[in-house]
Write a structure and sequence with these properties.
The protein has 215 residues and is α+β, with helices and mostly antiparallel strands. The chain is built from 9 helices and 8 strands. It has a 6-stranded mixed sheet. It has a two-stranded antiparallel sheet with strand order 4-5. A hairpin with a 2-residue loop joins strand 4 (124-125) and strand 5. Helix 5 (106-114) packs parallel to helix 6. The longest helix has 21 residues, at 5-25. It starts with a helix and ends in a 7-residue tail after the last helix. The relative contact order is 0.16.
Length: 215
């Protein structure tokens, strides 16, 4: 095949010039690739009662990139909030957490979560009672299960009493309607009043004392 040699030579010369400039400025191709490389992320799912409260607590943790509230662990596809709260579907109110493993490990994420709930309550969480509000760690694979077991065992030793937070296999996670996403941001004053009325933070201090989260 015939080639337009002058054009090829110009292109090669331009490329060499650009490489020389990058080299002299200390910004090589490898550096640019490192800057442009996407962050490796992972996800985890936790249930700890009130969707807005759990999401708000996770959003304050360093290394958390995104949170989505929803439902998991039940038997009905695409459940509505009303169906879940009725307790008839078997779902837990839960939060799916996307995080950067380079900044926060799964073990730390689980340990921090445990200190934002009352893991001794088998009837729900704080003022929210019933099956949808039970606490649980939903795990995918042996590594997450081992970390969850260690977290629960550590909480039992720290509290000196039984921890009832469940460890369950991860199933389909169904996102809640947009109205429930980022509620603590979109309705900040209502959220603050609701959280205070529920006595969540007061109970955390009773359960965890000085180990309560400083979020």
């Amino acid at each position: 095949m015939l080639t337009n040699r002058p054009a090829v030579l110009i292109a090669i010369a331009s490329g060499l010039a650009a490489s020389s400039i990058a080299f002299m400025s200390g910004g090589g191709v490898e550096d640019r690739r490192a800057e442009d490389a996407p962050i490796r992320v992972a996800t985890a799912v936790f249930a700890g009662g009130c969707l807005a409260c759990v999401e708000a607590d996770f959003d304050q943790m360093n290394g958390v990139i995104e949170t989505v509230v929803g439902y998991t662990g039940g038997s009905v596809d695409r459940p509505t909030h009303r169906q879940v709260e009725s307790g008839e579907t078997g779902h837990y109110e839960a939060v799916k957490v996307t995080y950067d493993p380079a900044r926060i490990s799964y073990e730390t994420l689980a340990a921090n979560f445990m200190r934002t709930i009352d893991p001794t309550d088998d009837t729900g969480q704080f003022c929210d009672k019933g099956e949808p509000f039970r606490s649980a760690i939903f795990v995918s694979g042996g590594s997450e299960r081992n970390a969850a077991v260690a977290t629960v065992s550590g909480a039992q030793r720290a509290l000196g009493q039984d921890v009832v937070t469940e460890i369950r296999p991860l199933t389909v996670f169904w996102p809640a309607d947009d109205h429930y996403q980022d509620y603590h941001v979109k309705n900040a004053s209502k959220y603050a009043s609701m959280r205070e009325a529920c006595g969540r933070d007061q109970r955390l201090m009773e359960v965890w004392g000085t180990q309560a989260p400083a979020l």
